[in-house]
Amino acid sequence: MKKWKYLTMTAALGSALLLGACGSNTAEEEPATNEQTTGETADQGDAQLTGTVSGDGSSTVAPITEAIVEEYSGVQPDVKVSVGVSGTGGGFEKFIAGETDFSNASRPIKDEEKAALEEAGIEYTEFKIANDGLTVVINPENNWAQDLTVDQLKALWIEDGTTKKWSDIDPSWPAEEIVFYSPGTDSGTYDYFDEVILDGADLVKNATLSEDDNVLVQGVAGDKNAIGFFGFAYYLENTDKLQAVSVNGVEPNNETIESGEYTPLSRPLFVYAKNDAVKENEAFYDFMKYTLENAGAMAEAVGYVKLQDVDYETGLSTLEGLK
């Protein structure tokens, strides 16, 4: 999983962000200096809090959350926020087990996860924080599969017992074996792709699966016959290594994702918060408030698409009602 570090920013998030990567499954951010802090900041008279906040879940949502954690540490340096990256499904498992205060998700919660939370006596609230366009990517040397239909994507990715070649999809394409890279089965991105492209059928068995999106990036970047998919932000961070596939003639970008024109691969991103933690942990309430106040700016800063302002206002009102 890529860990995003903010090096320089202006108070309005208007300057370019310099992002670096390191291999870590858990983000525990060091306090930021006042010069680094952006978005909503505490006035000198505001109460300083202490406490701990824990979350886990989607690798797609993680860049937004990690950026927020980085900035929040400059506002409340004595609140320790840790964010793991186990994938959407893995995050919900920890949420159900009572190990976390919030769970990041790149798909809506499933009925069986709702039932497990009810059985565990955990009440929760869903908050939308941004939009994403699940992006299908190919190697820059691939000059034949730059625009695919949904039906072609299904024919490519569905398991049918054959070893697939590009020429199986279109006879004019190379008779070369296709190399597949996919998020792991705990990923909400995997689930979403399976639902909207494969209609719940099995994904090709010979795909390389990984919860680390950087593994997928490197795999596709290193093989002319490779294809993969992941969140839009990871594509933007690697445009020098990859090219995005248009779907039904529509390329993924901020405008087509926000408008929903990039269908069916546009999707919302979520944070699920434990209601009791909001009520009982002042640090968690404050962190969630900060998240909703800054999620739009942070989403755009790391390559996703913000919601309408009214959506964040609704989220803040819902959060206040839980307290």
Automatic annotation (TrEMBL):
CDD domains: PBP2_phosphate_like_2. Its main location: membrane. It is a lipid-anchor. Residues 1-27 form the signal peptide. Residues 44-292 form the PBP domain. It holds the Pfam family PBP_like_2. Keywords: Cell membrane, Lipoprotein, Membrane, Palmitate, Phosphate transport, Signal, Transport. InterPro entries: PBP_domain, Phos-bd, Phosphate_ABC_transporter. GO terms for cellular component: plasma membrane. GO terms for biological process: phosphate ion transport. Residues 33-58 have a biased composition (Polar residues). The keyword Transcription regulation does not apply. The keyword Membrane applies. Belongs to the PstS family. The complex is composed of two ATP-binding proteins (PstB), two transmembrane proteins (PstC and PstA) and a solute-binding protein (PstS). This is Phosphate-binding protein. It comes from Lysinibacillus composti.
